[in-house]
Specification:
The protein is an alpha/beta fold and 116 residues long. It contains four helices and five strands, in the order βαβαββαβα. A five-stranded parallel β-sheet has the order 1-5-4-2-3.
């Protein structure tokens, strides 16, 4: 079931979709940004080949792509939609997530992925 037909979601909508188990978050930011904090249970995704990192996306679930300001993630989400993946990006990216004071998970290892 598709969670939303929009191309973007605001941080609170993203949090709700993730909490309900209807979506998975995928982060395309660089190492330094990743270490500063990320959406809980977010998985790193290579922006140059995003479709290769979607093995953790269950069928029928939505991919929520995030970058620092929402611009790059919008492009990646569009590329994924072109490949028939239900993907959206977070409006305003991690900047908006932090401004919304939503919980973040720190990481000391940029290669660390969290799987639930």
């Amino acid at each position: 079931m598709t969670a939303t037909s929009q191309h973007t979601v605001d941080p609170e909508q993203a949090r709700e979709l993730l909490a309900a188990g209807d979506a998975r978050a995928f982060d395309i930011r660089g190492d330094e940004e990743w270490r500063e904090g990320r959406i809980p249970a977010c998985i790193r995704l290579d922006a140059s080949a995003p479709e290769e990192g979607l093995s953790d996306l269950d069928e029928g679930h939505q991919a929520i792509v995030v970058c620092e300001d929402g611009r790059r993630s919008a492009d990646v989400a569009e590329k994924l939609r072109d490949g028939d993946v239900d993907a959206v990006s977070i409006e305003g990216g991690m900047e908006a997530w932090r401004e919304s004071k939503l919980w973040m998970q720190p990481s000391h290892d940029p290669d660390e992925d969290v799987h639930v």
